[in-house]
Amino acid sequence: MRFVYADYNATTPMDPAVADAMQPFLTEWFGNASSLHAAGRRARAALEQARRTILGALGDPTGQLVFTSGGTEADNLALLGAAEARQADGRHVVVSAIEHQAVLQAADVLARRGWQVTRLPVTRDGLVEVEALRRALTSDTTVVSIMHANNEVGALQPIAEVAAVVRAHGAWLHTDAVQSFGKVPVNVKTLGVDLLSLSAHKLCGPKGAGALYARRGVTVMPQHVGGPHEHGWRAGTEAVAACVGMARAVELSASHLPAWEAVRRRRDQLVAGLQQRLPDVVLNGHPALRVANTANLSFLGCEGEPLLIALDLEGVAVSTGAACASGSAEPSHVLLAMGLPEAQVRGSIRFSLGWQTTDDDVQALLERVPRVVTRLRAAAHAD
Ligand SMILES: Cc1ncc(COP(=O)(O)O)c(C=O)c1O
After folding, report:
1. For the whole prediction, is pTM greater than 0.90?
2. Which of 13, 49, 249, 284 sits CB 3.0–4.6 Å from 296 for a disulfide?
3. Under a CB-based contact definition with an 8 Å cutoff, are residues 50 and 107 in contact?
């Protein structure tokens, strides 16, 4: 049976060109980037080149970039590090209610340490309202974190508008661009953000690599201490091969951007096709203000987890939301924050396509998903 992967928001396959770029740094050029000898200098040069490549792609060649182990660590460092760096100015942070757990739980840590945390509600479409944000800001607000694209429903937040409000207030804006980078143009100057998180494995790069961008003038308190690596922002010997691979993935993602229109067409064909073939299929999240690859659908009368498992048996890989949340039967905090009815939350499945997804993949999904959903609905009725 043909395997259909429709879970690209969870992770992506590594591009062979990325693996090629990494290969020498895994074997013959194994030096520690902190070593002063030739092997170390070669690693350092590659690391700094990778940093320049990513800063250039983000549109701020003179900005600052710290390599991390992934998006989670970049988010943690942004929230905890920026809040700590500015604690003399105030101890209030604002996050949206639909952030990834890497941001929400970092905010929880701050709350336990005495910070005030505001979780900003979102509309039923999964969008942050700029006016609500304006009202949430206080004289103590130092850090605001609003993601660029939501991982579960794909909703694209109005970051440039948010940034104007946050900047006028004198706070710093962090955006988690883990799910937007490579899918839509991401330029830190156009967006107007102070801090931005990336993860390599969402863009056909290696797992275990990510980065936090910081505008010049912004600083964060390190959350890993030890050596003076990464300009003192993140101690620990740099994973040079992974950083090189991430930079290559970032370069390649620019060449794939035009392919996202085809992704959008396939995603929309999938949604329309499923809604034609099945009753009671609801699209969650804003229908237009969304990244091109994501469709979060509720199959009313079904439960997400059994549906995911039944689809897996049919060779289809999808998700019930955040990959880290699946396995726990917890309903999605994103869909709950959007105020969706319980049945809609419980029956939701996320389809996320890649530029690698083919028309044949979409056809296979249109054959298998209705079959499985119809079977599960009939079984639920018979109970
Ligand atoms: C929006 C968002 N932020 C952060 C992360 C965490 O990234 P990583 O898996 O690299 O730790 C993810 C991964 O699912 C994500 O979707």
Report:
1. yes
2. 284
3. no
